[in-house]
Specification:
The structure is a homodimer.
Chain A lengths: L4 H19 L7 E9 L2 E4 L1 H9 L6 E12 L6 E11 L6 E11 L5 E11 L2
Parallel strand pairs in A: 1-6
Antiparallel strand pairs in A: 1-2, 3-4, 4-5, 5-6
Chain lengths: 125, 125
């Protein structure tokens, strides 16, 4: 299975941003109570705090566009580290913003993965 | 110790880029034979392949400037995931390039850390 970490990373990333852009409260299923999110350097832990943070972001419409995706196996536990760079557009704003996001996915013991680490940062420049 | 993952991440990052900019062959001490580097989406594994990749980069002078640094504990094994965004200038080029880089640090069993995962990507836009 680990030989396909790159395919898993791609599937996860597509699912994550599609869900984020459609209805970000549905991302709850991807986190666990020990998961961590650092969003623009503010950190929260646990599914409910993470989803609340995402739902409270000050925009209604959002569209992510992934530009690059790299992945590596993260440990003997079967984890995967995913690094994304991309652009996002919010509401009626016409200029996309660049961002980078890092996930560590861990096996959930039932054949799938959950997000243990999640770090998001806008890139200015 | 894990409570200070943020301080460790900062110390590591400062040491890493200082060493990179002074003499990047000295980064060998930070990797192990199972370490992985994905540099601009090209992957190599092991200390010697990683250092060769870094030494072969087509510039002589380089200066990294870290702009943001976020860190989270990565696992029960005492690992730390570090996400950096920054800018770098090479040789006589006057325009800095934006980049993002992700490390997973793991304890080396002797009170310090080594780099298990390393992913580097330039950001255009």
């Amino acid at each position: 299975i680990m030989a396909d970490y790159s395919g898993i990373a791609q599937q996860f990333t597509q699912f994550y941003y599609t869900t984020f852009d459609e209805n970000r409260s549905n991302l709850a299923a991807l986190y666990r109570d020990h998961s961590m999110l650092t969003f623009e350097s503010a950190s929260v832990q646990g599914t409910s705090a993470i989803v609340q943070k995402l739902v409270d972001l000050p925009f209604e419409k959002v569209k992510h566009q992934v530009q690059t995706l790299d992945a590596q196996p993260s440990s003997g536990e079967g984890g995967i580290i995913v690094m994304v760079t991309g652009a996002l557009m919010v509401d009626e704003e016409e200029r996309p913003m660049n961002y980078t996001q890092v996930f560590q996915l861990l096996p959930d013991g039932a054949g799938s993965y959950f997000v243990f680490n999640d770090m998001f940062k806008l890139i200015y420049g």
